[in-house]
Design brief:
Elements lengths: L23 H9 L7 E4 L15 E4 L3 H10 L4 E3 L7 E5 L18 E6 L26 E10 L7 E9 L1
Parallel strand pairs: 1-2, 1-4, 2-3, 4-5
Antiparallel strand pairs: 5-7, 6-7
Length: 171
């Protein structure tokens, strides 16, 4: 099984809009509002549930799963989605990087800011030994960036767990 062929199993969170237990759009808006970022790439957008945190002109959702892109376009026809990433001022990784073993590509992105929202606790990683694979990291592992701020929220979908929104700027 892989991301491209698992349908929407790992992007729908059991059909709940906010399994996190809070409105993620409000949190994202609050973090990015002070930035002068004009364009946004939602890397691993799934069915597009975060697109409404941004205007239709600035947002582009990218995913490798064709069914997710189809569903995103169906649900949010005014927004842009596709299977190719585009250069943007801000790249959003919402619970995506924890499923990618080698994230060194993040350092080479042509963008001003990176917003990572993850369970940042390396002790929770399964090292790819089960599905879905998890390679959780700690926030300080993104050392080649300047940290602009962070927000930590309880992540109710996972008992006794927090999700960290980490805003980074290229050095």
């Amino acid at each position: 099984m892989d991301w491209e062929t698992d349908g929407l199993k790992n992007v729908t969170a059991g059909g709940k809009r906010w399994p996190e237990g809070f409105d993620v759009l409000d949190t994202i808006r609050g973090i990015v509002a002070p930035l002068s970022a004009g364009s946004v790439l939602d890397y691993g957008c799934g069915y597009g549930r975060l697109c409404e945190a941004f205007s239709t002109e600035e947002y582009h959702g990218y995913d490798t799963n064709p069914q997710a892109i189809y569903e995103a376009e169906r649900r949010h026809p005014a927004y842009s989605f596709g299977d190719q990433p585009v250069v943007s001022d801000l790249v959003l990784f919402y619970t995506v990087l924890l499923h990618i073993e080698d994230v060194s590509f993040v350092e080479s992105l042509d963008c001003d800011y990176v917003l990572i929202a993850e369970i940042m606790d390396s002790s929770r990683a399964n090292g790819g030994k089960c599905w879905p694979p998890t390679y959780n990291r700690d926030w300080y592992e993104f050392e080649n960036f300047d940290t602009r701020g962070s927000v930590v929220r309880p992540y109710k979908h996972y008992k006794d767990t927090d999700i960290t929104f980490l805003l980074l700027e290229h050095k």
